[in-house]
Specification:
The complex is a heterodimer of chains A (157) and B (282).
Chain A lengths: L1 H18 L26 H9 L31 H4 L2 H10 L40 H12 L4
Chain B lengths: L2 H13 L13 E2 L3 E2 L3 E3 L10 E3 L7 H8 L7 H11 L10 H5 L14 E3 L4 E3 L1 H13 L9 H12 L15 H11 L10 H5 L6 E2 L2 E2 L10 E3 L4 E3 L1 H10 L11 H13 L9 E3 L1
Parallel strand pairs in B: 9-11
Antiparallel strand pairs in B: 1-2, 3-4, 5-6, 7-8, 9-10
Helix pairs in contact in B: 3-6, 7-10
The chains are: A mainly alpha (157), B alpha+beta (282).
């Protein structure tokens, strides 16, 4: 009985959190570009984060970054620094800020913003080449950002 | 081809993924005869941006490179032959062909190297395709070709072949300066949801890999290019469109004022490199 009640409570919490993630325009970056608060209130799923990082239609992080722990995915890029060990040198808040919008941490960074929906020059509708819809979605969902952050935090060496 | 060196580089990359894969040191000599300037000092207007300009040929793998070394292996050359036929074929209400006014295609040697170019009478910068269309509509009484239409690309490839080896020498001053500045602004603008400019990849990161894609300097002296991925000749502005699309942006259209300006600017970045088309790329 208790288990059922707990499970129900957990589903309720997850449901509420997912229904109200922090909107891309409401993300609170501190002066150094870090984001202390979770975007969803739901712990990130590192395994799914790894999937997002190698999926060409999602994060595709390995397009630019080499990650030894993701070496099953072919052709890691050399445009950006390796992410090996990043979880040992960056806090979760710093990682969240960089994944959401790296330019808040590194001015002029080549890295695309993964949780941003406004302020673009000629935004498109995905990779169609056509104009973006009025309700342009961020490249990753709030929970996918949390999942990626959870995976990055595991990269201790 | 430096197979051993490449193997060594590959081995290095396995152990150290950040190894920087520079443009290779191979020589681009077509048919064992025409030596191309495929690397040279950057033009003065690129000071602070690039010190050396490099043909995209140096960033391709050995198999792709080899296809361009011999015209019998270059799948783009069949389209040059088609253009030679079209050159001598009368079209339009005036019963004229290109040959009626210009003689042999070889009479156009050097033309490709200076386009896009300011046209005083029209008061605009024209790409080579625009100039060909002016001939077609004004002198031949024929229909204009659409930007990067097959016929236009074939003829542009023929114009490239008769200028092959000559260094690009696009004028950026005088009346072309305004269009050139507009093209430069576009080159450095970060478009789309990925917020990427031409420069982010092709100036800051040439030689690096984006997944399996080896980034070149994005030079256009080798267009039209026979792209293995498309199994067809590809025009500069169509390639621009693909690149802008890949930044998750609303693209500009081939033939638009923006892409004409960008073509002038990017062509000027290759000043000093040999006209190379039709090249082979992947």
């Amino acid at each position: 009985m208790r288990l059922t009640a707990l499970a129900a409570a957990a589903i309720l919490v997850a449901g509420v959190a997912n229904a109200n993630p922090v909107a891309p325009t409401d993300v609170a970056y501190d002066d150094s570009g870090a984001v202390a608060e979770s975007l969803t209130g739901v712990a990130g799923d590192a395994a799914n984060g790894a999937k997002v990082m190698t999926d060409r239609g999602k994060g595709n992080c390995v397009a630019c970054h080499a990650v030894t722990a993701l070496s099953d995915a072919p052709f890691h890029g050399t445009v950006a620094p390796t992410l090996d060990g990043v979880g040992g040198v960056r806090s979760e808040a710093e990682l969240r800020g960089i994944v959401a919008n790296a330019k808040m941490t590194f001015e002029g960074s080549v890295m695309p913003p993964f949780y941003k929906t406004t302020g673009f020059t000629r935004p498109g509708d995905g990779y169609t080449g056509k104009a973006a819809p009025a309700d342009l979605a961020p490249i990753l969902t709030a929970q996918e950002i949390e999942d990626v952050v959870a995976f990055l935090a595991t990269l201790k060496d | 081809m430096k197979i051993k060196a490449l193997t060594a580089v590959a081995a290095l990359m396995l152990s150290a993924p950040m190894a920087f894969a520079e443009a290779d040191e191979d020589q681009l000599i077509i048919n064992g005869d025409v030596a191309m300037i495929s690397k040279t000092a950057a033009a003065p207007h690129l000071e602070g941006a690039l010190s050396e300009v490099i043909s995209g040929w140096h960033f391709r793998d050995n198999e792709t490179q080899a296809m361009q070394l011999d015209d019998f292996d270059n799948p783009g050359m069949v389209f040059v032959d088609l253009a030679r036929d079209a050159w001598a074929t009368a079209e339009g209400t005036e019963g004229k062909s290109c040959a009626s006014c210009h003689g042999e295609p070889e009479a156009m040697a050097g033309v490709k190297a200076v386009y896009p170019k300011w046209n005083e009478t029209a008061g605009e910068v024209r790409t080579l395709q625009m100039q060909m269309n002016d001939c077609r509509t004004t002198r031949m009484g024929a229909e204009a070709w659409k930007t990067d239409a097959k016929e236009a690309l074939n003829m542009e490839a023929l114009m490239a072949v008769v200028s092959r080896g000559m260094p690009m020498n696009v004028a950026i001053d005088g009346p072309a300066a305004e269009t050139w500045a507009k093209g430069k602004e576009i080159y450095y603008t970060r478009y789309g949801q990925l917020e990427l400019s031409c420069a982010n990849c092709h100036e800051q990161n040439y030689g690096n890999y984006i997944r399996s894609d080896h980034l070149s300097q994005g030079q256009i002296e080798a267009f039209p290019a026979y792209r293995l991925k498309d199994a067809a000749l590809v025009g500069v502005q169509s390639r621009f469109k693909g690149c802008v699309r890949d930044t998750r942006a609303e693209t500009f259209s081939p033939g638009s004022p923006e892409f004409i300006a960008l073509e002038l600017y990017v062509a000027s970045r290759g000043n000093g490199l040999s006209v190379e088309g039709p090249s082979v790329r992947n």
